[in-house]
Amino acid sequence: MKRALVTGAAGQIGTELVTTLRDALGDAAVLATDLREPGPRHPVLAGGPFRLLDCTDPTELGERIREHRPDVVFHLAALLSAVGESRPQDAYRVNLGGVMNVLEAAREEGFAVFTPSSIAAFGPGTPPDPTPQDTVQRPTTMYGVTKVAGELLCDYYHLKFGVDTRGVRYPGLISHTAPPGGGTTDWAVEIFWAAVRDGRYRCFLSHDVRLDMMYMPDAIRAALELMEADPRQLKHRNAFNITAMQVTPEQMARAIQERLPEFQMGYEVDPVRQAIAESWPRRLDDTAARDQWGWQPEYGLHETVDDMLTQVRTAEEAREPAPRVG
Ligand code: NAD
Ligand code: AKB
Fold first, then answer.
1. pTM more than 0.90
2. CATH 1.10.4100 for domain 173-213+244-283+298-317
């Protein structure tokens, strides 16, 4: 990989992926794009080239591709599960329209495509623990429907047109650089900021919903390692199950209390996000990823909680104090 273009680059994953790619390839080699322009101090704007790009517009997409000439596009633009349930028509348009436009551009211009899928690509009829690589995929959210269809489209473009499409099914991602974008697993990020700022958090999922989770450094490394993998080893392409840890809100709260004993956890269950969480797998079987491209997570629950608390505390301490009035 020499030159990359990232869609949805100002989001939770894009912010960290762009920084990592720029460190590896050089600032000018990585074009960050998003529907919205992030603030002037946002790393994707401050650290290298940035262009506005609506992935549902194939003309604009083609222009950015021909301008930058990437050999890999990381297509991250999407609406996540909770937003998708409140705006299903938009989720369909952005998530599937975007994938289709990127694949068509890849067919014409010859670049490789990384498209993340999700644990949301599974539904209540899927074996939840462990969830096999190849199994029933009948999700009950619009987000999940677009993820399954996106996986299939990416495989189709590889089989039919030889486009180098690759992807992983991410679990819920935990990170501290950019906020999460409106998903069912956002609680696993919010809890750290609330713990450090207020010493308490009210979780919108029940105490005992166990979901697959992953810390962002592992998620970024997975994308890069998959795109660098020998294509002859890849029997699957879209999309590989990957996992790092399985956590309930109660377990996360306990892990935080071991480090911040005064932290208090409460629950105010949101029925929409609770139903989504209950329809998702508890633990993905990532054997295919391990066998075909050497996938191996590095962060478990305790390493993640240690690092998140350190990073969030540091960010809070660095925040400019509110100006004094009077
Ligand atoms: P996010 O919501 O934080 O970021 C998505 C970005 O896409 C936003 O910056 C938004 O402005 C942009 N966007 C929205 N509509 C757009 C459009 N029409 N054109 C261009 N940009 C547009 O999401 P994320 O968490 O960074 O997720 C990135 C990808 O990874 C998505 O495909 C998501 O489904 C997938 N994923 C994320 C997680 C997770 O936990 N974060 C887990 C599984 C899969
Ligand atoms: C969401 O909750 O929607 C995302 C995901 C797991 O895909 N974080």
1. yes
2. no
